[in-house]
Amino acid sequence: MTQIGKAISRLEGWQKVTGSAKYAGDYNVPDLLYGYVVNSTITKGHIISIDTSDALALPGVIKVFTHQNRPGLAWFDIMYTDMDAPPGTVFKPLHDNEIKYNGQPVALIVAERFEIAREASALIKIKYEEMHFETRLDRNIEKGRNAKKGLATALKPPPPKPKGDFSLAYDESPFKVATEYRHSTEHHNPMELFATTTVYEGDGKLTIYDKTQGTINSQIYVANIFGLHFKDVRVLAPFVGGGFGSGLRPQYQLFFSVMAALELKRNVRVTLDRKQMYSFGHRPQVIQKLRFAAETNGKLTALSHLALSETSQFEDYAELVAEWSHKLYPANNTLFSYKLVPLDLYTPIDMRAPGGSTALHAIECTMDELAYQLKMDPLELRLKNYAEIDPSTDKPFTSKALKDCYLKAAEKFGWNERNPEPGSMTHGNKLIGYGMATGIWDAYQFPARVEIGVNAEGKLLVNNATTDIGTGTLTVMTQIAADQFGLSLDEVTFGYGDSKKPFSMFQGGSAMTASTGSAIVIAANVLKKKLLDKAKEITNSPLKDAELKDVMFTHGRMYLKNQVEVYVMLTDIVQANKGKTIKTTNLGAPHMFDLRKYSKMTHSAAFVEVEIDKDLKTITVTRAVTAVAAGKIINPKTATSQITGSMVWGISKALYEETILDENLGKYMNMNLGEYHIPVHADIKQLEVIFVEEKDELINELGVKGVGEIGLVAIPAAIANAIFHATGKRINNLPIHFDELL
Ligand code: MOS
């Protein structure tokens, strides 16, 4: 009876589809007050005055908080940031009268009803003094500078140092391509809006339902900035309606909800609307310049990737952009750089394969151009430059089955039917294009603590503070835990989404299965030892001389290997423990020191077919196949969902999503789902996912690398390459608009 590897449907699926799942804004606690936030309409400057009298006169309005009457908090004088904060000074709502970006929250109205609070927001009169601002990356290129270093940069180091002599090698190589790629801003737009319901329990105690990707991150934030004891702050997020990175940092609705609850000693909910979701973090604008050179046989000789990205004036948000080509391809001469330009916008925040998806688009399109120049098949060029060890660090991979990804996906797709000549393949009045690209993503693993125990009914109780942002975490963790003791899924309860449970980092980076999953295995092994010790104490115990390595667990029994008749029931062991749950709490730390000698990566290969109307140039992605190498797949069903969803993001990034900035106003203009385009069902055709076998005995206890973002990274380039194949046109910005093909 093994649960790992089974295609199991989400255990909480019925709660989601029947509407019984409660999200942060759904907790209708008694005597609830509602907050509505007012946002700045200018981009940079100062508030001269705020007149709240009309708003306060509206029946049902309880209070209006502004920078003039907000409570004094230690936070406003100390340097406190959240777990995912980049180096710099975190933005503090209502700190003073300074406006740092358009949409900055400047007031909170608290009323008896949400509608009253929103109505009152229109009655607040604010006078501003406006100052000159800069919001365009391409107009401020000369301001590019290195990113500051800080705690959060541990996961985002600067790009590798140069090798050899790039300029010389590039000049002397017979084949070379120089490209420039531009990406505009994107916003996460999870379905669930940002909301926090704070229950004021008295005695400085709070129970907080927050829309977050990290319950403990929100707990630490609240405790620190409001000067509360950690144990008095409980943050719950049992259901999260998508995050995509937007919930990695505590957002301002949390601050406002808690501030109002503490000040008014009442229960307070603050919900942000769709437009307000555009005021606290985005995928940054990026400009990339690449130069790749090769020998006549296609072997790369020189790689250069220079990236310029935006950040805010107060924090240095960095992502990994410039290094990915050299994690995929060897070359003796390299030159990489990553620079930031501070602009008068809010700090960017990780969004769906941050950095990697932007970088891989540029890299894999540049490789495609090189393949055309060499008159070589794009897949053959990748295979010719296949790296058996990580060229950027000279470290071996813990495992790498990328070659299988290429070959299996190519076969499934029918890549060998491709005529390489651009515009040569047609179907009626449609141009057909085939494109391919490579994907790579870090196999992250974070420290996690897991509590695991057996209760009097013989049920396994497992606890960790992680959220499940829609990825299938509950199901996957239940499967992993069940297998440790040979139990069925209904004999296991996985408790999560609660800051009171043992430590978890925020849920991001496709790291949770490796992090909490491995911690479950480690904790289970400790519990087994504890159970055996207790089993030995039972009178006439049949296991009194047994060693742990000879003991098996299944169906609620522990027994001697090869002697199923020699067993002790787990319920009897708990009985002997006076019926009290036998449990243990252990840290599953990534064995960072052992793994320092290795490169830990997931890989993918994507093959895409586009159909382009010959006259109208409308683009449809008709087929896409992605093969993924990500170690062991715990649940093929939820993993396939992860990759399929990621492929949809890839289509979205390539053809639909962009936040449009009005440079005269310094303001985003399409802050709604009507004008911020994402694909609808009719835009999504045939998507296929293949998981190639990849046995990884080094990476962690489970051999898992995690899936999610790896499904996205290759898709935009594969689509752009397919569009080139169909039309002969290279469009070097995303999203690609069909009118650019006219
Ligand atoms: Mo993410 S951008 O891994 O939440």
Automatic annotation (TrEMBL):
Pfam families, alphabetized: Ald_Xan_dh_C, MoCoBD_1, MoCoBD_2
Domain Aldehyde oxidase/xanthine dehydrogenase a/b hammerhead: start-end pairs: 18-132
Residues passing through the membrane, by range: none
MF GO annotations: iron ion binding; oxidoreductase activity
Gene3D superfamilies: Aldehyde oxidase/xanthine dehydrogenase, a/b hammerhead, Aldehyde oxidase/xanthine dehydrogenase, molybdopterin binding domain
Domain of life: Bacteria
InterPro entries according to UniProt: Ald_Oxase/Xan_DH_a/b, Ald_Oxase/Xan_DH_a/b_sf, Ald_Oxase/xanthine_DH-like, AldOxase/xan_DH_MoCoBD1, AldOxase/xan_DH_MoCoBD2, AldOxase/xan_DH_Mopterin-bd_sf
Annotated protein name in UniProt: Xanthine dehydrogenase family protein molybdopterin-binding subunit
Organism in which the protein naturally occurs: Pedobacter miscanthi
